[in-house]
């Protein structure tokens, strides 16, 4: 029997990642600030995984709190990291934090010493953006923000040494959802299914004349199909009609399945999609690994170049960031980028 967890407790779990960073993980929007952070609970290291034993990310330059939307909102800020080895320009990875879509200011906790560090070491510039939370706005605001980040990268290529011939997305947990959804919805402006209709591209920021297309994606433990979240033994967050995804979309799943298809990365799959790599822990008790497997199966069925790595002892962030897995990620990005 699945274990039902109160929605408030789900919010607490997202704060577990704050134990990785001095002063705690910054939170904004409708979530109260948590001074000093919250200790890890029962071995659960939060939605960013346990990075305490990792080496520190190395970079030549870091640009902090750059606003990509042309406003003064913290949820529209991003950080930029450039590799330690200086070059004229760098291919780009946009990496998105996990928070069950409940944080609007956690870019500083976005797997900096694991995924971000590996990408930097492989020669990629890394952009870590904030985005609007459930408390700030309903869907599709979250994917509108990520699309705006991609357009910002293209519009500011010269300023930040971005090589926009290759832009990939990556993300953990809800960030994995947004990473995958951004890639699967390449070229989609408005998507309609039955009575459901969403402006996926949006018009956030001043760079709407630029493309939001990406070349590849990585999904780390993401809830990429919101209608198959009960396929395994993971916990259920929130009561009926009050799961994080239902709060984000503002509707219960029952009777509104079309809306949740258009919230899911799987709802946008077609044969022309860009390549992707899925990483999922078989002991993930937050997003069951069968969700990632279902995504992979649908990609394969459509003929999309895709890969999956099941980590037998991996949890939700815990035990996922081995050197081998991080190398699989960067080797995949290099393969797609170079065509080799």
Write out key terms for the chains shown.
single chain, 340 residues, alpha/beta, 9 helices, 12 strands, 20% strand
Structure description:
There is one protein chain. By secondary structure, this protein is α/β, with parallel strands linked by helices. The chain is built from nine helices and twelve strands. The protein has helices spanning 7-14, 112-121, 141-155, 157-160, 174-184, 244-249, 257-261, 289-302, 323-338, and strands at residues 4-5, 59-67, 77-83, 90-96, 125-129, 162-172, 190-193, 196-199, 216-220, 236-237, 276-281, 306-311. The chain has an eight-stranded mixed sheet, sandwiched between helices. It has a two-stranded parallel sheet with strand order 1-10. A two-stranded antiparallel ribbon has the order 7-8. Strand 4, helix 2 (112-121) and strand 5 form a beta-alpha-beta unit. Helix 2 (112-121) packs across helix 9 (323-338) and helix 3 (141-155) packs across helix 5 (174-184). The longest helix is centred in the last third of the chain and has 16 residues, at 323-338. The protein starts with a strand and ends with a helix. Residues 1-48 have low confidence and may be disordered.
